[in-house]
Design goal:
globular; 4 helices; alpha+beta; 3-stranded antiparallel beta sheet; single chain; 4-stranded antiparallel beta sheet; Creatine Amidinohydrolase; about 25% helix
Length: about 270
Amino acid sequence: MDDFKGRLTRDGIRIHGPEDFAGMHKAGALAARILDDIAGHVVPGATTGAIDAEIERLVTEAGAKSATIGYKGYQHASCISVNHVVCHGIPGDKVLKEGDILNIDVTVIVDGWFGDTSRMYVAGRIPRKAERLVQITHDALMKGIEAVKPGNTFGDIGHAIQSFVESQRMSVVRDFCGHGLGQVFHAPPNVLHYGRPGQGPKLEEGMFFTIEPMVNLGRAETKVLADDWTAVTRDKSLSAQFEHSIGVTAEGYEIFTLSPGGKFHPTYEV
């Protein structure tokens, strides 16, 4: 760990230098490109395992490393969470049906830097209520990102997301959160997607973290299945999630995981 530069705040959040942004942009761009390239594989009849195998191939082809293969025993290059699965869905034999919505979450390591992003896809035509959920979730992420600037707090980010989602009569998942990253996969802080303005650590230039709200059509409560990974909505309502990796700049923020093809949302033909 001696390679790390920069200081830690009293909350244990690493402050990166200006030279570190380039590494994060490179890793983030690859993760985003893979999510662009996988869109054509998300069709009715495809299995989540086949989609994951293609993601693993794309990671290897790029000369990068998957951050998730081998992480706490996990064996896949992505998490694929379908319909009422909130996050950490394990790819496998599940066959996608017409109208299924799914989040695909990919983290790659490029030259020691971690690029972490996820977005929503649909197999076939998207049902209207699912389309609205996906749109609100995307917009909630962007409202959270807009609250990122030095002097604001992590509570400001959470409040921006929560207040918008709840105004749309949907609920924000509280059991999972965003996280710091950089030359490690998960680091302080926990980035909550709910909160009060002015609370939590202050944002400083050089902080790197993910914002990744999960939004449910029904209630916020989740449960983790017996596989110890898959989280689902307790009421079986649909859930959606979008995720970007962010760096705090002097003026505001940079998004490391922008889609090269402008396909972050929507990832499908409307």
